[in-house]
Protein backbone atom coordinates (compact mmCIF):
# COMPACT_ATOMS: atom_id res chain seq x y z
CA UNK A 1 0.00 0.00 0.00
CA UNK A 2 1.36 3.40 -1.00
CA UNK A 3 -0.07 6.63 0.43
CA UNK A 4 0.55 10.24 -0.55
CA UNK A 5 3.36 10.28 2.00
CA UNK A 6 4.97 8.18 4.71
CA UNK A 7 6.22 9.70 7.93
CA UNK A 8 9.98 9.53 8.32
CA UNK A 9 11.04 7.46 11.32
CA UNK A 10 14.70 7.40 12.40
CA UNK A 11 16.43 4.42 13.95
CA UNK A 12 14.53 3.80 17.19
CA UNK A 13 17.83 3.66 19.08
CA UNK A 14 18.35 7.36 18.31
CA UNK A 15 14.99 8.18 19.85
CA UNK A 16 15.54 5.96 22.88
CA UNK A 17 18.80 7.77 23.64
CA UNK A 18 16.87 11.04 23.99
CA UNK A 19 14.07 9.35 25.94
CA UNK A 20 16.72 8.35 28.46
CA UNK A 21 17.71 12.03 28.74
CA UNK A 22 14.08 12.92 29.45
CA UNK A 23 13.93 10.30 32.21
CA UNK A 24 17.14 11.67 33.74
CA UNK A 25 15.97 15.31 33.54
CA UNK A 26 12.49 14.48 34.76
CA UNK A 27 10.92 17.38 32.85
CA UNK A 28 8.28 16.39 30.32
CA UNK A 29 6.95 19.76 29.14
CA UNK A 30 6.85 23.50 29.98
CA UNK A 31 9.93 24.60 28.01
CA UNK A 32 12.12 21.65 28.86
CA UNK A 33 15.76 21.43 27.78
CA UNK A 34 15.01 19.54 24.53
CA UNK A 35 12.35 22.05 23.52
CA UNK A 36 14.77 24.90 24.15
CA UNK A 37 17.50 23.10 22.21
CA UNK A 38 15.15 22.44 19.29
CA UNK A 39 14.08 26.08 19.14
CA UNK A 40 17.71 27.20 19.11
CA UNK A 41 18.81 24.70 16.46
CA UNK A 42 15.85 25.41 14.18
CA UNK A 43 16.39 29.16 14.47
CA UNK A 44 20.03 28.63 13.46
CA UNK A 45 19.20 26.21 10.65
CA UNK A 46 16.51 28.46 9.19
CA UNK A 47 18.49 31.65 9.83
CA UNK A 48 15.58 33.37 11.56
CA UNK A 49 15.60 35.68 14.56
CA UNK A 50 12.63 34.72 16.74
CA UNK A 51 11.43 31.11 16.57
CA UNK A 52 8.73 29.68 18.84
CA UNK A 53 7.89 25.97 18.93
CA UNK A 54 4.19 25.22 19.48
CA UNK A 55 1.85 22.24 19.67
CA UNK A 56 0.73 22.28 16.03
CA UNK A 57 0.45 24.41 12.91
CA UNK A 58 -3.18 25.38 13.48
CA UNK A 59 -2.44 26.67 16.97
CA UNK A 60 0.42 28.64 15.39
CA UNK A 61 -2.06 30.36 13.07
CA UNK A 62 -4.50 31.07 15.88
CA UNK A 63 -1.77 32.48 18.11
CA UNK A 64 -0.59 34.71 15.26
CA UNK A 65 -4.11 36.02 14.69
CA UNK A 66 -4.62 36.55 18.43
CA UNK A 67 -1.27 38.30 18.94
CA UNK A 68 -2.00 40.70 16.09
CA UNK A 69 -5.48 41.32 17.56
CA UNK A 70 -7.12 40.73 14.20
CA UNK A 71 -10.89 41.14 13.94
CA UNK A 72 -13.27 41.72 11.06
CA UNK A 73 -12.26 41.16 7.44
CA UNK A 74 -9.04 39.26 6.77
CA UNK A 75 -8.03 38.48 3.19
CA UNK A 76 -7.01 34.87 2.68
CA UNK A 77 -6.47 32.22 0.03
CA UNK A 78 -9.13 29.78 -1.18
CA UNK A 79 -6.45 27.21 -2.06
CA UNK A 80 -4.92 25.69 1.05
CA UNK A 81 -5.75 23.19 3.76
CA UNK A 82 -8.94 24.01 5.66
CA UNK A 83 -7.01 25.02 8.81
CA UNK A 84 -5.97 28.25 7.11
CA UNK A 85 -9.61 29.31 6.93
CA UNK A 86 -10.90 27.71 10.13
CA UNK A 87 -8.19 29.39 12.21
CA UNK A 88 -9.68 32.73 11.15
CA UNK A 89 -13.21 31.57 11.92
CA UNK A 90 -12.21 30.30 15.38
CA UNK A 91 -10.68 33.70 16.12
CA UNK A 92 -13.91 35.45 15.03
CA UNK A 93 -12.48 36.90 11.83
CA UNK A 94 -14.32 37.08 8.53
CA UNK A 95 -12.42 35.34 5.68
CA UNK A 96 -12.38 37.36 2.47
CA UNK A 97 -11.07 35.21 -0.36
CA UNK A 98 -8.61 36.51 -2.94
CA UNK A 99 -8.50 34.14 -5.91
CA UNK A 100 -5.22 32.51 -6.89
CA UNK A 101 -2.80 32.87 -9.77
CA UNK A 102 -3.02 30.24 -12.50
CA UNK A 103 0.78 30.11 -12.38
CA UNK A 104 1.86 30.07 -8.71
CA UNK A 105 -1.46 28.80 -7.28
CA UNK A 106 -1.08 31.42 -4.53
CA UNK A 107 -2.98 34.63 -3.88
CA UNK A 108 -0.68 37.27 -5.36
CA UNK A 109 -0.80 41.05 -5.07
CA UNK A 110 -2.97 41.46 -8.15
CA UNK A 111 -5.64 39.15 -6.71
CA UNK A 112 -5.41 40.69 -3.24
CA UNK A 113 -5.84 44.19 -4.67
CA UNK A 114 -9.21 43.18 -6.11
CA UNK A 115 -10.70 42.58 -2.67
CA UNK A 116 -8.71 44.82 -0.31
CA UNK A 117 -10.39 47.95 1.04
CA UNK A 118 -10.56 50.23 4.07
CA UNK A 119 -12.34 47.51 6.06
CA UNK A 120 -9.51 44.99 5.62
CA UNK A 121 -7.72 44.25 8.89
CA UNK A 122 -5.07 41.79 7.75
CA UNK A 123 -3.86 39.28 5.17
CA UNK A 124 -3.30 35.54 5.65
CA UNK A 125 -2.02 33.63 2.64
CA UNK A 126 -0.30 30.29 2.10
CA UNK A 127 3.00 29.28 0.50
CA UNK A 128 1.15 26.45 -1.21
CA UNK A 129 3.31 23.30 -1.59
CA UNK A 130 6.18 25.53 -0.43
CA UNK A 131 5.78 27.79 -3.47
CA UNK A 132 5.36 31.55 -3.37
CA UNK A 133 5.05 34.49 -5.69
CA UNK A 134 5.54 38.22 -5.18
CA UNK A 135 6.22 38.40 -1.45
CA UNK A 136 7.81 41.85 -1.48
CA UNK A 137 4.92 43.27 -3.52
CA UNK A 138 2.44 41.78 -1.05
CA UNK A 139 4.33 43.30 1.87
CA UNK A 140 4.34 46.71 0.18
CA UNK A 141 0.58 46.45 -0.34
CA UNK A 142 0.06 45.51 3.32
CA UNK A 143 2.24 48.47 4.34
CA UNK A 144 0.17 50.82 2.17
CA UNK A 145 -2.94 49.77 4.11
CA UNK A 146 -1.04 49.61 7.42
CA UNK A 147 -2.16 46.05 8.08
CA UNK A 148 -0.19 42.94 9.10
CA UNK A 149 0.43 39.97 6.84
CA UNK A 150 0.63 36.38 8.09
CA UNK A 151 2.17 33.71 5.88
CA UNK A 152 0.99 30.15 6.42
CA UNK A 153 4.19 28.25 5.68
CA UNK A 154 2.88 24.83 6.72
CA UNK A 155 4.45 23.29 3.60
CA UNK A 156 7.52 25.51 3.40
CA UNK A 157 10.11 24.19 5.88
CA UNK A 158 13.60 24.83 4.53
CA UNK A 159 12.47 26.91 1.55
CA UNK A 160 14.47 30.02 0.74
CA UNK A 161 13.19 32.96 -1.29
CA UNK A 162 15.72 35.33 -2.85
CA UNK A 163 18.45 33.71 -0.77
CA UNK A 164 16.85 33.95 2.67
CA UNK A 165 14.40 31.84 4.62
CA UNK A 166 10.85 32.21 3.39
CA UNK A 167 9.93 32.59 7.06
CA UNK A 168 11.72 35.94 7.15
CA UNK A 169 8.85 37.51 5.20
CA UNK A 170 5.60 38.87 6.58
CA UNK A 171 4.70 40.12 10.04
CA UNK A 172 4.48 36.53 11.27
CA UNK A 173 5.15 33.25 9.49
CA UNK A 174 3.91 29.88 10.68
CA UNK A 175 4.92 26.30 9.96
CA UNK A 176 3.55 22.82 10.63
CA UNK A 177 5.61 19.91 11.92
CA UNK A 178 2.82 17.35 11.63
CA UNK A 179 3.90 13.77 10.98
CA UNK A 180 2.93 14.12 7.30
CA UNK A 181 5.32 17.03 6.72
CA UNK A 182 8.80 16.85 5.20
CA UNK A 183 10.23 17.77 8.62
CA UNK A 184 8.14 16.62 11.54
CA UNK A 185 8.08 16.37 15.32
CA UNK A 186 5.12 13.93 15.28
CA UNK A 187 2.85 16.87 16.11
CA UNK A 188 4.09 20.42 16.22
CA UNK A 189 4.32 23.81 14.64
CA UNK A 190 6.17 27.09 14.79
CA UNK A 191 5.82 30.85 14.83
CA UNK A 192 8.54 33.02 13.30
CA UNK A 193 8.80 36.80 13.44
CA UNK A 194 11.43 39.53 13.13
CA UNK A 195 9.66 41.68 15.75
CA UNK A 196 11.10 41.15 19.26
CA UNK A 197 8.08 42.69 21.01
CA UNK A 198 5.70 40.52 19.03
CA UNK A 199 7.81 37.44 19.80
CA UNK A 200 7.60 38.20 23.52
CA UNK A 201 3.83 38.58 23.28
CA UNK A 202 3.55 35.28 21.41
CA UNK A 203 5.63 33.50 24.06
CA UNK A 204 3.26 34.74 26.73
CA UNK A 205 -0.03 33.82 25.08
CA UNK A 206 1.46 30.44 24.10
CA UNK A 207 1.61 29.73 27.85
CA UNK A 208 -1.82 30.81 29.16
CA UNK A 209 -0.92 34.51 29.04
CA UNK A 210 1.76 34.25 31.72
CA UNK A 211 4.40 36.91 32.26
CA UNK A 212 6.38 35.54 35.17
CA UNK A 213 3.84 34.87 37.91
CA UNK A 214 1.41 37.42 36.47
CA UNK A 215 -1.10 37.22 33.62
CA UNK A 216 -1.01 39.90 30.95
CA UNK A 217 -3.42 38.45 28.36
CA UNK A 218 -5.96 35.71 27.68
CA UNK A 219 -3.64 32.96 26.51
CA UNK A 220 -3.87 29.29 25.67
CA UNK A 221 -1.75 26.18 26.13
CA UNK A 222 0.17 26.11 22.87
CA UNK A 223 3.34 24.53 24.27
CA UNK A 224 4.88 21.27 23.09
CA UNK A 225 6.54 18.39 24.94
CA UNK A 226 10.03 17.00 25.33
CA UNK A 227 8.97 13.82 23.51
CA UNK A 228 7.99 15.76 20.39
CA UNK A 229 11.11 17.91 20.58
CA UNK A 230 13.24 14.76 20.78
CA UNK A 231 11.84 13.52 17.48
CA UNK A 232 12.48 16.94 15.94
CA UNK A 233 16.11 17.04 17.05
CA UNK A 234 16.75 13.65 15.46
CA UNK A 235 14.84 14.40 12.27
CA UNK A 236 16.69 17.69 11.81
CA UNK A 237 19.96 15.73 11.55
CA UNK A 238 18.42 13.58 8.82
CA UNK A 239 16.72 16.41 6.93
CA UNK A 240 19.42 16.87 4.23
CA UNK A 241 19.11 13.20 3.26
CA UNK A 242 15.30 13.33 3.40
CA UNK A 243 15.23 16.33 1.08
CA UNK A 244 17.81 14.82 -1.30
CA UNK A 245 15.82 11.60 -1.68
CA UNK A 246 12.61 13.49 -2.34
CA UNK A 247 14.38 15.69 -4.89
CA UNK A 248 15.56 12.64 -6.82
CA UNK A 249 12.07 11.15 -6.67
CA UNK A 250 10.56 14.40 -7.94
CA UNK A 251 13.03 14.55 -10.81
CA UNK A 252 12.11 10.99 -11.80
CA UNK A 253 8.43 11.91 -11.79
CA UNK A 254 9.26 14.83 -14.09
CA UNK A 255 11.02 12.49 -16.51
CA UNK A 256 8.45 9.71 -16.53
CA UNK A 257 5.11 11.50 -16.44
CA UNK A 258 3.49 12.37 -19.78
CA UNK A 259 4.24 15.90 -20.94
CA UNK A 260 0.52 16.60 -21.36
CA UNK A 261 0.05 16.57 -17.59
CA UNK A 262 0.47 20.08 -16.24
CA UNK A 263 3.01 20.70 -13.48
CA UNK A 264 3.04 23.56 -11.02
CA UNK A 265 5.24 26.50 -12.02
CA UNK A 266 7.81 26.78 -9.24
CA UNK A 267 9.14 30.25 -8.47
CA UNK A 268 12.65 30.47 -9.93
CA UNK A 269 13.70 32.64 -6.95
CA UNK A 270 12.85 29.83 -4.53
CA UNK A 271 14.99 27.01 -3.21
CA UNK A 272 12.46 24.15 -3.24
CA UNK A 273 12.03 21.62 -0.44
CA UNK A 274 10.24 18.90 -2.49
CA UNK A 275 7.52 18.50 0.10
CA UNK A 276 4.85 17.63 -2.50
CA UNK A 277 4.57 16.58 -6.11
CA UNK A 278 1.33 18.09 -7.45
CA UNK A 279 0.06 17.52 -10.98
CA UNK A 280 -2.90 19.10 -12.77
CA UNK A 281 -5.05 17.06 -15.14
CA UNK A 282 -7.05 18.38 -18.07
CA UNK A 283 -10.38 17.75 -16.34
CA UNK A 284 -11.84 16.44 -13.10
CA UNK A 285 -13.15 13.46 -15.04
CA UNK A 286 -9.60 12.53 -16.08
CA UNK A 287 -8.33 13.02 -12.53
CA UNK A 288 -11.01 10.72 -11.10
CA UNK A 289 -10.27 8.11 -13.75
CA UNK A 290 -6.58 8.14 -12.80
CA UNK A 291 -7.41 7.94 -9.09
CA UNK A 292 -9.63 4.92 -9.63
CA UNK A 293 -6.84 3.16 -11.53
CA UNK A 294 -4.26 3.91 -8.83
CA UNK A 295 -6.58 3.11 -5.93
CA UNK A 296 -7.39 -0.27 -7.48
CA UNK A 297 -3.77 -1.32 -6.90
CA UNK A 298 -3.54 0.22 -3.41
CA UNK A 299 -1.88 3.49 -4.44
CA UNK A 300 -3.49 6.51 -2.81
CA UNK A 301 -2.58 10.01 -3.98
CA UNK A 302 -4.36 12.89 -2.21
CA UNK A 303 -6.52 15.69 -3.56
CA UNK A 304 -4.60 18.53 -1.96
CA UNK A 305 -6.51 20.84 -1.93
CA UNK A 306 -10.13 19.98 -2.59
CA UNK A 307 -12.60 21.56 -2.40
CA UNK A 308 -11.58 25.18 -2.78
CA UNK A 309 -12.03 26.77 0.64
CA UNK A 310 -14.49 29.38 -0.60
CA UNK A 311 -16.84 26.46 -1.29
CA UNK A 312 -16.83 25.09 2.27
CA UNK A 313 -20.44 24.45 3.32
CA UNK A 314 -20.25 26.51 6.53
CA UNK A 315 -19.21 29.71 4.70
CA UNK A 316 -21.10 32.20 2.58
CA UNK A 317 -19.99 31.55 -0.98
CA UNK A 318 -17.52 33.97 -2.60
CA UNK A 319 -16.62 33.29 -6.23
CA UNK A 320 -13.00 32.26 -6.88
CA UNK A 321 -13.14 30.67 -10.34
CA UNK A 322 -9.43 29.91 -10.71
CA UNK A 323 -9.15 28.18 -7.32
CA UNK A 324 -12.37 26.26 -7.92
CA UNK A 325 -11.12 25.03 -11.29
CA UNK A 326 -7.64 24.06 -10.05
CA UNK A 327 -9.01 22.31 -6.95
CA UNK A 328 -11.07 20.00 -9.14
CA UNK A 329 -8.11 18.99 -11.32
CA UNK A 330 -5.07 18.81 -9.04
CA UNK A 331 -3.69 15.89 -7.06
CA UNK A 332 -0.49 15.20 -5.12
CA UNK A 333 1.31 12.00 -6.05
CA UNK A 334 3.02 9.77 -3.45
CA UNK A 335 6.31 11.23 -2.22
CA UNK A 336 8.37 10.32 0.83
CA UNK A 337 11.90 9.66 2.04
CA UNK A 338 11.36 5.97 1.29
CA UNK A 339 9.58 5.94 -2.05
CA UNK A 340 11.47 3.78 -4.54
CA UNK A 341 12.28 4.09 -8.21
CA UNK A 342 10.10 1.03 -8.80
CA UNK A 343 7.16 2.74 -7.06
CA UNK A 344 7.49 5.87 -9.19
CA UNK A 345 7.90 3.94 -12.43
CA UNK A 346 4.76 1.97 -11.61
CA UNK A 347 2.73 5.08 -10.76
CA UNK A 348 3.78 6.84 -13.95
CA UNK A 349 3.06 3.76 -16.04
CA UNK A 350 -0.47 3.47 -14.64
CA UNK A 351 -1.14 7.16 -15.21
CA UNK A 352 0.18 7.01 -18.79
CA UNK A 353 -1.94 3.98 -19.64
CA UNK A 354 -5.05 5.57 -18.13
CA UNK A 355 -4.96 8.82 -20.08
Outline the structure in words.
The structure is a single chain. The chain is built from eleven helices and 17 strands. It is 39% helix and 16% strand. The model has no long low-confidence stretch (mean pLDDT 97). The chain has a seven-stranded mixed sheet with strand order 2-10-9-6-5-3-4, with helices on both faces. β7 and β8 (164-165) form a beta hairpin. The chain is α/β, with parallel strands linked by helices and 355 residues long. The protein has two domains: 2-233, Aspartate Aminotransferase, domain 2 (3-Layer(aba) Sandwich), CATH 3.40.640; 239-354, Aspartate Aminotransferase, domain 1, CATH 3.90.1150.
Question: Secondary-structure map with pairings?
Answer:
Layout: E1 2-3, H1 12-25, H2 33-46, E2 50-54, H3 57-67, E3 72-76, H4 82-90, E4 93-97, H5 109-113, E5 120-126, H6 135-144, E6 149-152, E7 160-161, E8 164-165, E9 172-176, E10 189-193, H7 196-206, E11 210-211, E12 214-215, H8 226-256, E13 262-263, E14 270-271, E15 278-280, H9 284-295, E16 299-300, H10 321-329, E17 330-332, H11 341-354
Parallel strand pairs: 1-16, 3-4, 3-5, 5-6, 6-9
Antiparallel strand pairs: 2-10, 7-8, 7-14, 9-10, 11-12, 13-15, 15-17
Amino acid sequence: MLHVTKSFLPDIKEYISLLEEIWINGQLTNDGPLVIELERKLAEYLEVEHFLYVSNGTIALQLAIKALELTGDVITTPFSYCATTTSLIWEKCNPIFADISQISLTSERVQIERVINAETRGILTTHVYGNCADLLDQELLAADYQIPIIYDGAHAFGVKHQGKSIFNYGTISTCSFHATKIFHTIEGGALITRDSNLAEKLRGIRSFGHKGDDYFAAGINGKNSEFHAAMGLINLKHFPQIKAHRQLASELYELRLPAEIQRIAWNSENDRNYSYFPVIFSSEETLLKVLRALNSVQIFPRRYFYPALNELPYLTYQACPVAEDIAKRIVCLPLSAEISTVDIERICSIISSTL
